[in-house]
């Protein structure tokens, strides 16, 4: 009897031990194949390529594969973790893996540009490579700095799998809370304690302590814009053409400080928001954030790790070169991130308003207003990026009367000045184009795309964010350059107050006697890597430059559409309504009711159009002398057109 009891106890112990082993296996990234979520297509990327997330660690950092077991796709729980209330998979790893952040160290443009800078100044190779790796491969460069010290090289990156994980989980979640936001230029500080930080308190620590040896802790800084500051303000030391330091400093990019100098960075503003608020959309659903732990408290708000920006071109190039670049995301992952990036550009970046201010037989005066919705300049970040306006005017037969901002077969703007295109307040010829960009100048005042030769901006007319002012303490890091004082509506409202985040380009379009219907098409396009910016680098030949040139030439360089608007101007006619003896009143219309008096049998049709060319009201008189109509909205301009005696007569009215 006693022996049977011992056997039963031993069996229970063995069974319990087996359960613990199985549970631990469920926590481990290298779990048995039965746990499909660890080695399925979401991780390995079999569908559409990709090599799967990398696992491994160095002294202070771990690659994303170590985190996937809990923070990847969950197919095992009775209540799925990392899913929203509608059952949509919102896991962190798969959202992140196809972003530019995840691929920062494998980015072929980055590698080619480093070799370009080294080719220009070989004596500075160690400093250049180490500097760039601080943001593009932070888990390699900073680990070396925190252990043995010394410069981190591109040769080391080639064999450093943890560093190749780019701006991975620990590149953000291991940042030191006390120094966060005080260091820039890739010099962000990392915690040397056994801690990993997240945005939630009341943390369950057991799983992470058991499997990766770190303790999860609440870190308020994780949800703040200061987390991004270390790499999104970059100031470089200037060298002359011989490679000698000049002692000058050049602001290569300052997205963080652009945000600081805005309404969005003002904590007292109703518009205040963080970088994460836009680039990591917040879900209010309660999300269980670790797989196989159904009993964990759902977390809210939950920041989706989408990290979408505006670089559609490079994302598409990466997708087309998964194998050669050894990427860890599949083509399906990239399709998702590309779609999110397009949405970011087209829905959260700009507003576009086109109006015909005045028109006669000689000219059409067309205003194109852009309103920046981003929390920083647009474009922002790396100085290759530019946006431009295309304006087309067509007659009633569809023939082009005027076009500014078109591009050729090589995706370069037609009429672009040999050096760089200046900022325009007024555009009068097709050879002029409005390009929003930053142009770097060297010690001689010549344009350069060599980062280490940049001394000062020759032009920076990128659209400022709402609330941006030249009186702000951060303005010396976020200069506006090359916008003449005569452009009184650049970042200024109608009263001349700074901070509107807008610009109006005034087009004077020759009509050459044409008075008929005018179709106006206005579009804003974006290029992350325009051909003109590549020329200086492509003059050199190195392994990485040659490899990137091949990918670049094979890629679709069509600019990405940000916003468009089509406007129909019905024509000015030769005569106005006064010649018919007709009175249109009141003007402006204050109660919404437009009235017309003095109609005669000569008036065949009355039409009312809005400035988009949409017909909002029409009437065929039957002998009456008066007619009235309710305008659909206040604060808009309308065109009243009457057909009489084989002619068209028109008058503009404004609704208030």
Overall outline: globular
Taking the sheet with the most strands, its summary is: 7 strands, antiparallel
> CATH topology of the domain at 347-457 and 479-569, anyone?
Immunoglobulin-like
Any low-confidence stretches, pLDDT <50, length ≥5?
A: 1-47
Ends: how far apart? 98 Å
How much of the polypeptide forms β-strand, as a percent range?
Answer: 15-25%
Mean pLDDT: 90
Fraction of residues in helix: 10-25%
CATH class wording of the domain at 347-457 and 479-569? Mainly Beta
Number of helices: 19
Question: How many DSSP E strands?
Answer: 25
Shape-level CATH architecture of the domain at 347-457 and 479-569: Sandwich
Structural class: alpha+beta
Radius of gyration over all CA atoms, rounded: 30 Å
What can you tell me about this protein's structure?
- With 656 residues, the chain is α+β, with helices and mostly antiparallel strands.
- Among the domains are: 347-457 and 479-569, Sandwich (Immunoglobulin-like); 575-654, Immunoglobulins (Immunoglobulin-like), CATH 2.60.40.
- The protein is 25% helix and 23% strand.
- It has 19 helices and 25 strands.
- The strands form 7 sheets. Strands 9, 10, 12, 13, 14, 16 and 17 form a 7-stranded antiparallel β-sheet that branches.
- The longest helix is centred in the first third of the chain and has 26 residues, at 2-27.
- The model is unreliable at 1-47 (pLDDT under 50).
Quickly list its features.
single chain; 656 residues; alpha+beta; Immunoglobulin-like; 5-stranded mixed β-sheet; 19 helices
Could you give the topology of this structure?
Layout: H1 2-27, H2 36-39, H3 41-44, H4 65-71, H5 92-96, H6 108-120, H7 125-136, H8 138-146, H9 154-158, H10 169-173, E1 195-198, H11 206-211, E2 215-218, H12 226-232, E3 233-239, E4 245-254, H13 255-260, H14 275-279, E5 282-283, E6 302-303, H15 312-319, H16 322-325, H17 331-347, E7 350-359, E8 363-372, E9 386-394, E10 400-404, E11 426-427, E12 435-441, E13 447-448, E14 456-460, E15 502-510, E16 518-527, H18 531-538, H19 543-554, E17 560-569, E18 575-576, E19 583-585, E20 593-597, E21 603-610, E22 615-619, E23 626-630, E24 637-644, E25 647-654
Parallel strand pairs: 1-2, 11-15, 18-25
Antiparallel strand pairs: 3-4, 5-6, 7-8, 8-15, 9-10, 9-12, 9-16, 12-13, 12-14, 16-17, 19-20, 20-23, 21-22, 21-24, 24-25
